[in-house]
Amino acid sequence: MPTGPPPQRFVISRLLPLAVLTSAFVLLCPLGAVAVPSPLGVADLRADLRRLLADPTLAHTRSGVVVRSRTEGDVLYEHAPRTALLPASTTKLLTSAAAMDVLGADYRFTTSVSAGTVTADGVVPGDLYLTGTGDPTLRASAYAELAEDVAASGVSKVAGAVVADDTWFDGQRLGHRWQAEDQQYYYAAQISALTVAANPDYDTGVVGVSVTPGGAKGEPLGVRLWPRTDYVTVRADTAVTGGPGTQSTLDIARRLGGNTVTVSGQLPTGGAPVERLRTVHEPAGYAADVFAAALQRAGVEVGGDPVRGTAPPGTVELARRASMPLGELLVPMMKLSNNGHAEILTKAIGREVSGVGSWTTGLPEIATALRRIGASTDGLRLRDGSGLTRANRVSAASVADLLLAVRNEPWFATWRRALPVAGAADRMVGGTLRSRMRATPAQGNVVAKTGTLTGVSALSGYVEAANGEELVFAIINNGYTGAAPRPVQDAIAVRLARFTREHTTGAIAQPLRAEPATTAVRGWECSWAKTC
Predict the structure, then answer these.
(1) Which of 92, 335, 449, 530 is catalytic?
(2) Fewest CB within 10 A of the end CB: N or C in the chain?
(3) Is 527 a catalytic residue?
(4) Which Pfam families match (predicted)?
(5) What are the structural domains, with CATH classification, of the chain?
C-alpha cells in the first residue's frame, strides 16, 4: 500500500548559457511565478526535461521517459526508454486497450436467474440459481430489480436456496503477490464472477461500514453496513464515544479468511460519522445473500440459506440483467483507477478467447492483443491486469507505442474519453488528475493515466503542444524515497503543453501547485485514499 509524506511543492531552477537566452518563459514554482530565460525548439525541450529529471527528488530513482510527436512522427525526448520498470496502474492502459480489442466497446456482462422448474402456482421446488459473468456494476439496487423480475415472472416461493454460480471465472480470488496487508482494503478486493458493488463508483467485492458517535461520552458507537447483509458480522464491543474534542482512535478491520469486521477505538462526541470500505471474503456468497434478501422484500419466500454452487444444464431463465457497455464502464475504471474492474476484464478476456476465465488465460491474451494493435511488447511482463502487483514490468517505450497505435483503432475516441483530464473538477472527468496541473496550459489539455505504488509513480498520456502538435508521453519513476515525484511529472507535462518548434507563445504566469492535502494523504494517489 502506498506510504510516504504528502507531495511537496516543486521548485525548478535552471542555469543556461548566455548564448541560448533567446527568449523567456516562466517555469512553475511554489513560491510564485519566476521569469527565467529559456531557449526554444526541440533541443531546448530536451535540455529542460533533462534538468527536470535531475531534480533532487529523483535522486537514486530509475526513470523511463519517452515523448513522441504523433503529428510529426519524431521522438522528441527519450531517457532509458526500453528499461523494464514497475508500472503500477499504468498497467490499466494495456488491459483496457486489450479489452476493447478482444471484447469490443459494446461488450456487456450479464447476470441471470434460473430454476429447474416452476409449478403452475409459482413454486420453485428446488433451488434458484444466480449466475454471474463478472459484472462489476451490480449494486444492491440491481439485485432488487432482478428479484422484482423473478416475482413478476410468477414465482412466489423457492423451496430450496439461492445458489450463487460464479464458475464463469476460476476460483483464484487474489492476484499474483498481492500484499497481505492490502487485502482488507477496497483496492485489493477478491475477484469473482459474481459480486456486489457497494457504491456509485462500482467498487466491487466490498461492504461499506458506517460508524457514528453516540450522544455522550462512554456510549457505544453506532455501526451499520451498506448494503445491508447478514454475510458480514460486525463486532464493536470495545468501540465507544469519547468526550467532545477528543482525538479519534477508530479502527475498522477485517481479519483475512473470514467476514467479521471489528470496530474498535473511539470517536468524539459530536464528531462526524466515519465511512470505510472493507473487502468481503468469497464475494459470490455475499451476492447470494443480498439477492436472497431482495427476493424476500419482493414477496418471494426462500426456504434455505444462500449457498455457492453451479447451475445445472437445462434450467429455465426467469430474469436477466446486462451491464452498461464496456465503453462506458471504462470511465469509472480509468478515471478512478479501479483495480477490481481491471482484473475482471483480464479474466473476461481469458474467458472470451479460451473458454476459461483466469489470470493464466487472460494475461497472455492481453500481450497478444497489444501486438495486434501494433504496440511493442519487448520486455513486457504481466502478472495482473491492474498494476497492484509489484511483479509487472513494462518500458516507457512500449507505453508510448501503445498510445500511438491505439489511435488507429475504431474505438480510440471512446477509450481516450475514459482517461483522466488534468485539472477537471468533475471527478468523472478529471479522475485522478482532477487536482493536478490546475491553472496551467496543461489544464483540460493533458489526458493521461496515473500510477502509484510505494516507490512507484507514473504518468502517461496525451497533450497538445502550443504549436498544435499532438504529443504522447510516458513517464515511469521507480525507487524514489520520500514524496512521490508528481510535481516533476506535472512540470514535464506543462512543459510539453508549452512546446513549440519555432517560436514562443508567452510566459507561464501561474505557479505549479501541489495536490491539496486532502488528496495527498500519506503520499498516496487520491484513488487509494478515496479522495478523487
Answers:
(1) 92
(2) N
(3) no
(4) Peptidase_S13
(5) 18-105+327-529 (3.40.710.10), 110-172+282-323 (3.50.80.20), 206-279 (no CATH)
